[in-house]
Amino acid sequence: MPDTKKTFSKVKPGLHPRNKHRERYDFDLLIKDSPDLATYVRLNEYQDQSIDFFDPEAVISLNQALLKTYYHIDFWQIPPGYLCPPIPGRADYIHHVADLLYDPAKITILPGRQIRCLDIGVGASCIYPIIGVQEYGWSFVGTDIDALAIASSRQIIDSNPALKDKVTLRLQTNPNKIFYGIIQPEEFFDVTICNPPFHASQAEALAGSVRKLQNLKRKKITQPILNFGGQKNELWCVGGEEKFVSNMIFESKACSTRCRWFTALISKEKSLHHIYKTLKSVSAIEVKTIPMIQGNKSSRIVAWTFIS
Questions:
Q1: Domain layout of the chain by residue ranges
Q2: pLDDT at position 105, please?
Q3: Which of 7, 23, 98, 254 is 20 to 30 A distant from 246 in Cα terms?
Q4: pLDDT of 275 higher than 80
Q5: Environment class of residue 205 by beta-carbon count within 10 Å: exposed (0-12), middle (13-18) or buried (19+)?
Q6: Tell me, which fold does domain 81-305 have in CATH?
Q7: What H or E segment, with its residue span, contains residue 158?
Q8: Model's pTM, two decimal places?
């Protein structure tokens, strides 16, 4: 009887060359380091080891295993209902930012001089600081408007010695501001990063959740199930990512000498026209657009600076 097992490429297409998750998950290795993951691993329809990405507990367990094996993070937990980030895509953002800051030809000499990064919307997972610290030795200031998210990230930092002296957290007490009240007059950052809420309304966010689940299950789903988690401020804001990033651009002008590069992850290509128009209106000296591809999903980092 012929072998009907579907063969997949060992390397995931599109991920950054330094991304530790370019190859398919090695579940045997992950389970060796994190035995609890075995509870969720089973053979999929192609007879490959996988988890049910429909199951939030399974996704959290996978993230815990990935963080332990590849980033030496012994404790990682998020409160119920908060966004559980896909680690390969988050790592890609950090690696592309590293290329922005360094000469890619000399990337092997990292870490070099101390890099300070401001993470707008650090969330409950503290995921960008974890990857940036463990991959490059950067230091981070993480901000959020959600006190519970800050408390969760603080617990992660306090529970992992490698993060303690590298990551500090600041609560943004004005939900309508981004940099105001956060970047102090005497401070300088090499780069800011942000994965903005990209939906413009709760209905749009729920529809996005349905599409994501349909892609996973390959069947029609009519009721949104928020297995991936996410608080309101993590998933949507009035005007969506276009409005959020435009506000960020206007605020960045006021602190233009206190940061080398401002960046934001843009999910929707249609948002770019207005974002570029806004950047022109504030006279950004240089603007870069860095494409990111993960499987069938494409996004891009928009970076701008006022420093020549």
A1: 81-305
A2: 63
A3: 98
A4: yes
A5: buried
A6: Rossmann fold (3.40.50)
A7: helix 147-159
A8: 0.87
